[in-house]
Design goal:
By secondary structure, the chain is of the alpha+beta class. The chain has four helices and four strands. The protein has a four-stranded antiparallel sheet. Helix 2 packs antiparallel against helix 4.
Length: about 110
């Protein structure tokens, strides 16, 4: 799978509204056949930073995502709400779901 984590520093005046600002894009991405998950979280240390954790089944699914109409719309509509270009970590990993964190196993 393609596993991606990205950090978005949102302008303070848009931080509270970020979930609504990204709602259509998030819903459309989650509906893509190759999307395994697409989850937003808000930083505990910086209220203006959102972290996106997303995964796609394979290269084909990731390519379909970045060439979709909703992605092109996001490229146009989201940057005016941001302080800087989002930062990203993007890797292929040989699995298709979350693994258990054995060191904190619930017994």
């Amino acid at each position: 799978m393609i596993f991606i984590t990205a950090k978005f520093r949102v302008k303070p005046e848009h931080a509270e509204d970020w979930p609504a600002i990204t709602a259509d894009f998030t819903a459309a991405t989650r509906a893509e056949p190759g999307c395994l998950w697409y989850d937003w979280s808000r930083s505990l240390d910086d209220a203006n930073e959102y972290v996106l954790v997303e995964a796609f089944a394979d290269d084909e699914a990731a390519t379909a995502h970045v060439t979709s109409d909703h992605f092109k719309t996001a490229q146009r509509d989201l940057p005016p709400h941001l302080v800087e270009t989002p930062r990203i970590v993007n890797f292929k990993v040989p699995q298709n779901d979350w693994s258990e964190l054995g060191e904190l196993a619930v017994k």
